[in-house]
Amino acid sequence: MIRVVLAAMMTIALAAPLKAAVEIQEVTSPGGIEAWLVQENSIPFVSLEIRFLGGSSLDPEGKRGVTKLMTGLIEEGAGELDAAAFAEARDGLAASFEFSVQDDALSVSVRMLTENRDEAVELLRQALVNPRFDEDAVERVRAQLLSGIRSDLTDPNWIANRTFDDMVYGDHPYGSSSDGSLESVAALTRDDIVEAFRAVAARERVYVGASGDISASELGLLLDRLLGDLPEKAAPLPGPAAVNISGGVTIVPFDTPQSVAFFGQPGIARNDPDFFAAFVANEIFGGGGLQSRLSEEVRVKRGLTYGIGSYLVNFDDADMLLGRFASANDRVAEAIGVVKDEWANIAANGVTEQELDEAKTYLTGAYPLRFDGNGPIARILVGMQTIDLTPDYITSRNENIEAVTLDDIKRVAARLYQPENLRFVVVGQPEGLEEIN
Amino acid sequence: MRRFIAVIIPLVVALAGPAKAAEVTSFLLENGLDVVVLEDHRAPAVVHMMWYRVGSADEPRGVSGIAHYLEHLMFKATDELESGEFSATVARNGGSDNAFTSYDYTAYFQRVASDRLELMMRMEASRMDGLALVEEDIATERDVVIEERNQRTENDPGALFGEQRRAAQFLSHPYGIPIIGWKHEAEALTLKDAVSFYEQHYGPNNAILIVAGDVEPDEVRRLAEQYYGVIPPNPNVKPRNRVTEPPQLAERRLSYADPRIGQAYVVRTYLAPERDAGAQEEAAALTLLAELLGGSSTTSFFADKLQFETQVAIYSAAFYSGLSLDDTTFGLVVVPSEGVSLAEAEAAMDQAVADFLEAGVNMEDLERIRVQIRASEIYEQDNLSSLARTYGAGLTSGLTIEDIQAWPQILADVTAEDIMAAAEKIFERRNAVTGWLMTEGSEELMQ
């Protein structure tokens, strides 16, 4: 049942030919649950990343925030144990289970010592199969969620994010806060929470990555114990979002010294033939380092912000090109002008040969450095599976980046960067900035 | 259930540090540069860090923020490198680099494939004594720093409140001044200020090199001799001689309201001893006290009293980190439930502390924490960057390698009596600053 795929992690970068090999084993448990494993026995613990596709976007109509609230309750009592007893049992094993939820997935990040792994698995199984959702725990966690919402309502970053998402995604779940509103969260019942748990925690949409001190056969048995009792079917996913975006500037007046600017436009699908070219183009344009064009023009040359970037974001139901920065109220208009100019520039002219070469050596050299410990490796393994990659992607990924040509970038930049569709949302008291609808 | 709460806890409680996590080698170059090598051969990568024993608490008065501003300027031109060339070269080699400034240290680091180590050393050596600042870099980078302050502090009322509380906590010691600097002083920093600070504090005899990853100590020594060994010691470097806090005789109380506050809370900090070389026992007891009192939002004494037994609070915590050159703080925070006033929240917090002093240490709770301390030594082995930072922060905070390695055992040896003795001593209101962060329009007055 256990198929082993060797995927030597190679880089053919000019500069940094790392020789590390990450050996991914594709494991299928006796009960039919699949997982990817990187076995590394030198430190006696294992990291598991368990991801259920369909996160806060599964919130039913009128029940916004229920998946978030439910996620906060999974560890607050399970089986025979109430919240405190569960936490004591977990801490006594020195295990850690972190439950988190995003728009598209609910994630469980697990760390367990080899010496007491069976007990830790049994405890986690209780949370995944028999969460209690006790009334007192519901009220306690609901109050925490409401407090967080109250804080967010006066946070300029949150306001910018919400304004942008509402404008772009409308009625799709992406269009509203996954925390819900003060009203929607106040109205949620225990039944809603139980239903939200059933909607997401099912075998048909679970992905698992494991890294550390565990063999393939041990992992197979662990998967059956941990996840074997979950139901097969989850609730239907919401389907693609209709992205509604037009170029312009939206201003939300807010009394604070520094304006927060979010910007974005439609992006490019992960399976588009030009995706890698777009990825490299955006690394040059707005990637992580201080070397990107946006950072060079807005921060380094003009000192207009502490940080600026642009990101290709592939949600399950929408592909976007997004970015953000913050500038003092009297300087944000200038910064927006610079961003617009750069947008038009790359669309019209692409990038230079030197920029392309440098981006390639950076991206191919940095990739192996991501495999930095059991937790990060387990997360990478899950991320790959959820977007239907195969283990040999670890090798082919850098080859794909090396294959991008200057012409590819020019073609994709002309298509990707659309100055006419670039929308800014600015929260603050910007001076000399006009709204453009 | 910490994740929904927007309150920022100023210091993360680090339960344990490393012990035998990686093979550790150390040596001293003739020019005074300390070198620490942490071997981990699992992946062909290396973290190269240069830590300087200088931070914002070493700044002259009136030029607050100069240590952090200089950290930004260290990425500009040197005798051998053009402005920006350092980071661009790291990126071209597939690596990442950055830097950070704290009260007691300034550190620069790169993470790259291990066969790039020599290149990193060549560049880092170049800016150890060859920084070549020019006016044009200075002005725009100061604007960047101001935008950083805007982003971190001016736009965040919780951060502004934190600055005010720290200023009240330290009557004379520079820990009361923000690392990034007071805004009016940071705006006025000059090229001369930066050069003067650099010439006063930078040099091999005020630095610690940490190399962690797939390296051999002999090779690190050879390269370090070649690139850093040739730099003469800086004669301007003097031992750090910080001012001593006067006796704190009067409790300080402050309140801050801002329309941008959505959730009120009460926070109190007490002046507290830090970890000292050869004497870390009291700090270890305080570390465990913070853990028992408010280290878990489900099982701690505070959680039990304030969130489970009563529903006074939606969140409560205690926090302490002993990693500091001079005296630090031990803190408590309570976020009241809806309908509970800050006065009631503070009274409940005080009652919970009194109840803890009365009840003493629950041995089952202490045993669970000991299990976690032992486990953290295993988990720590998997995170080399964090290990390197632990050594860097420890060594620049006056500890020795032996102190850092002894820490987990010292924590494990703390008894219930030690914890209660530390507790009896720490909750001294004359040393304390109590702050109320309030929503605008709140009618409540601080008592």
From TrEMBL, chain A:
Q: Which UniProt keywords apply?
A: Signal
Among the GO molecular function terms of this UniProt record, one is: metal ion binding
**What are the Peptidase M16 C-terminal domain coordinates in residue numbering?**
188-362
Signal peptide range in chain numbering: 1-20
Give a yes or no for keyword Signal in this entry.
yes
Q: Which residues lie in coiled coils? A: none
Boundaries of each Peptidase M16 N-terminal domain copy? 41-145
What the entry lists under InterPro entries is as follows: Metalloenz_LuxS/M16, MPP/UQCRC_Complex, Pept_M16_N, Peptidase_M16_C
Q: Which domain of life is it from?
A: Bacteria
Task: Give the protein's recorded name.
Answer: Peptidase M16 inactive domain protein
Q: Which organism is it from?
A: Boseongicola aestuarii
UniProtKB/TrEMBL annotation, chain B:
Please name the InterPro entries in this protein's record.
Metalloenz_LuxS/M16, Pept_M16_N, Pept_M16_Zn_BS, Peptidase_M16, Peptidase_M16_C
Q: Which species is listed as the source?
A: Boseongicola aestuarii
Keyword terms, alphabetized: Hydrolase, Metal-binding, Metalloprotease, Protease, Signal, Zinc
GO MF annotations for this entry? metal ion binding; metalloendopeptidase activity
According to the record, the signal peptide region is 1-21
Peptidase M16 N-terminal domain sequence ranges: 36-180
Q: Which GO annotations describe the biological process of this protein?
A: proteolysis
Q: Is-annotated flag, keyword Translocase?
A: no
Q: Where are the transmembrane segments?
A: none
Going by the record, the broad EC class of this enzyme is hydrolase
Q: What gene does this protein come from? A: ptrA_2
- The protein in question is named Protease 3
Stretches assigned to the Peptidase M16 C-terminal domain: 189-370
PROSITE patterns in the record: INSULINASE
Q: What is its EC number?
A: 3.4.24.55
Cofactors, names only: Zn(2+)
Q: Name one Pfam family in it.
A: Peptidase_M16
The entry sums up its family as follows:
Belongs to the peptidase M16 family.
